[in-house]
Amino acid sequence: MTFRLQRVRTMPPVLQPNILYVAEHYGAAAHLCACGCGSKIRTPLGPTEWSVQDTPSGPSLLPSVGNWQKPCKSHYFIERGQILWAAQWTEEQIRAGRRQEQRRRDVYYAELDRQRGGVFARLWHWFRSLF
């Protein structure tokens, strides 16, 4: 199975197999599950979420896709248009992965807040801009 990238303004109502749809304006990607079950898989794109790379061989979607809430529970990478299957995770691994994702978000946004001078500095600049 080879995936190809299709950039779209909005997601189509019916997804086609083997296409990774990317709506950059909305920071989202979608595709049909690689296992063939027909589930629509949606992944948010952003600095703390998934990223898409368009390569000459096909798209890469990182990190892996873990369909833990779908009946198939598929786990795979899309790398250079190819599906690389990964092991299914236990419930504990899923919880640990979710905690790690949250920590990554917390660190990213704390650093962003620090670079911007914190909440009080932003409020002060906003207040000053009114006058």
Q: Which sequence of SSEs, written as H and E, runs from N to C?
A: EEEEEEEEHH
Our count of helices gives 2
How far is the first residue's CA from the last residue's CA? 60 Å
Oligomer: single chain
Strand content: 25-35%
Number of domains: 2
Unreliable parts: none
Biggest β-sheet, characterized? 4 strands, mixed
The mean pLDDT is 91
SS elements, strand count: 8
Overall structural class, as computed from helix and strand content, comes to alpha+beta
Q: Can you tell me the overall shape?
A: globular
Radius of gyration: 18 Å
Helix percent reads 25-40%
Strand numbers in spatial order across the main sheet:
1-2-3-4
Write the layout of secondary structure elements.
Blueprint: E1 4-7, E2 19-23, E3 28-32, E4 40-44, E5 51-55, E6 58-66, E7 75-79, E8 82-85, H1 91-115, H2 118-129
What would you say about this model in short?
Helices cover 28% and strands 32% of the residues.
Structure description:
With 131 residues, the protein is an alpha+beta fold. The chain has two domains: 1-88, no CATH class; 89-131. Helix content is 28%, strand content 32%. The chain has helices at residues 91-115, 118-129; strands spanning 4-7, 19-23, 28-32, 40-44, 51-55, 58-66, 75-79, 82-85. Strands 1-2-3-4 form a four-stranded mixed beta sheet, with no helix packed on it. A hairpin with an 8-residue loop joins strand 6 and strand 7 (75-79).
Salient structural properties:
2 helices, four-stranded antiparallel sheet, 2 domains, 131 residues, four-stranded mixed sheet, 8 strands, single chain, alpha+beta
